[in-house]
Amino acid sequence: MRKILFLALLSFLMVIVPLNNTVSFAAQSTPTVNQCLGQQNSSKCDDNSKKRSQQDISSIDKPSNLTFFDYIKMIFSFIFVMGLLFLVLYWIKKNGTSFSKNELVKSIGGKSVGSNKSVQLLKIGNSIYVVGVGENVTLLKEIDEEEEKTLITKQFEDKLNNDLKVPKWLEKFTNRDGSVDKKQPQSFQSLFKEQLSSLNERKKSLLSNLGEKGTDKNE
């Protein structure tokens, strides 16, 4: 959203702020340095310098010739540029998922758990894996439940769509029914935390089982 506001402000400044009017003058023959050093052409050099100074002052004092119609054209140009920008964003929103459709491996989420250590969700084909990334890459878990995989994939697609959200006034022109989906599914962050908690519980159970086996051997 910040990128959209920055582009809008930049487009506004490019359209509204007029460029300074420059006054072009015909090229005049000026004497060379050697000619100015001579006594005969000294008066000519003085006259040329006075003329140039007067022309510079007149060009600075000359007001801009912008009319009310020019400002109207600027406003309509700004509206046209913003409309094109939102249409491009809408097209990316509708077709953005197809850009990465042919990718075999996708990173659909991750969270840092320490210095140079993170837990990543990778989608390979139709399978989703929880991978620990540190000094080595370790497979922590494979998500087998179809319902859970569908929910994770949907959360990932919703996040992509929210990053390229189109204003409501433009959605009325793009959506045929003009309806807005008001359903707010479970956030990806909470789902990822559930996966981490389940991994911790599984790790604790494995450690407890190993401890029980160790005590049995000692007995």
Descriptive notes:
The protein is α+β, with helices and mostly antiparallel strands and 219 residues long. It has two domains: 2-18 and 35-97, no CATH class; 102-201, no CATH class. The chain is built from seven helices and four strands. The protein has helices at 2-16, 33-37, 42-61, 68-99, 146-163, 168-174, 188-218, and strands at 105-114, 117-124, 127-133, 137-143. The chain has a four-stranded antiparallel β-sheet with strand order 1-2-3-4, with helices on one face. Helix 1 (2-16) packs antiparallel against helix 4. Its main location: membrane. Residues 1-26 form the signal peptide. It is found in: Cell membrane.
Q: Number of helical runs?
A: 7
Radius of gyration: 34 Å
**Which stretches of 5+ consecutive residues score pLDDT under 50?**
19-29, 176-185
**How confident is the prediction overall: mean pLDDT?**
68
Based on CA inertia axes, which overall geometry fits?
elongated
Count of DSSP E strands?
4
Helicity range: 55-70%
Order of helices and strands: HHHHEEEEHHH
Strand order of the largest sheet: 1-2-3-4
**Helix/strand/pairing category:** alpha+beta
Tell me the span between the first and last alpha carbons. Answer: 64 Å
Let me know the largest β-sheet. 4 strands, antiparallel
Count of discrete structural domains: 2
Strand content: 5-15%
